[in-house]
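Pipeline run #58 for the internal structure catalog. This entry was flagged by the ingest filter as a single-chain record with no existing model, so it goes straight to prediction. Upstream metadata was stripped on purpose; only the residue string is passed forward. Reviewer on rotation: M.T. Logging verbosity set to normal.
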Amino acid sequence: MNADFSVRFPAPAKINRFLHITGRRPDGYHELQTVFQFVDLCDWLQFFPLSSGRVELDAAMPSLNGDNLCLKAARLLAERSGHSLGVRIALTKHIPVGGGLGGGSSDAATTLVALNHLFRLGLSLPSLAQLGLRLGADVPVFVRGLAAWAEGVGERLTPVEPDTPWVLLIDPGEAVSTATMFGSRELTRDCPPERITASGYGSFGNVFEPLVRRRLAVVDAALEWLGAQGVPARLSGTGGCLFGLFADAAAARAAQQAQPHPWRSWVVRLVNRSPLCEWHPPDADGT
């Protein structure tokens, strides 16, 4: 690669249209069911080749400059491919940290796909997804880039085509620890298994929502207000971001303007195909 060459790659956020826990494995991992969909709110990663063979990360937030998932993804890919992958990664964060939107997992997936493309490593999409699973249960869906019904720990993916309404995405400013939520004694772990459906999953719910609402008053208040707008309102993942579904952008923006508190928020569109798909390996078929 030319040392003066660099390319920017997107790392989109996700939401969970619903999230159920159906059981717990002997090894402590949870069996879940969920539907992943992407939103057009993205982190951006720019990759600069380094002749030193080192992997470095630049991020505007100092807390992200440690041994984060982008670095782990690059090192894992180097180990798998036998290539030194000297690169500096410039990470620009837009997805809230600890918001249940999968930002760290998405950044890791983009790192795998981008470096596979830029260094012409030739790994297939299933191979990249399998590597991603070693970094986190959400990483494979970001690697594959298609909206999916997910089971297991989130790695068994079936592509689906849910509706794509407009979304008012709200960050009340409270980061939530995924590990803490999964470890809670109050977590419902015996949801009846659901079947894949073409519906909007409106009645399925998110088992983490009552836990987060009890612990964080600001999230509870935001969900209460958003639900009062007459639209489906739900926590994403383990929180603390939430979303409301709107029929059109104008209605979502009107609600955004009416927010009673200065929460960070975005009007975005749900999409079933990630912008990262543009950079998939040539033989990728999404399966």
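catalog note: DSSP finds eight helices and ten strands in the chain.
catalog note: Strands lie at 7-24, 30-49, 55-59, 87-92, 148-151, 156-159, 166-171, 233-235, 242-246, 264-271.
status: ready for reviewer M.T.
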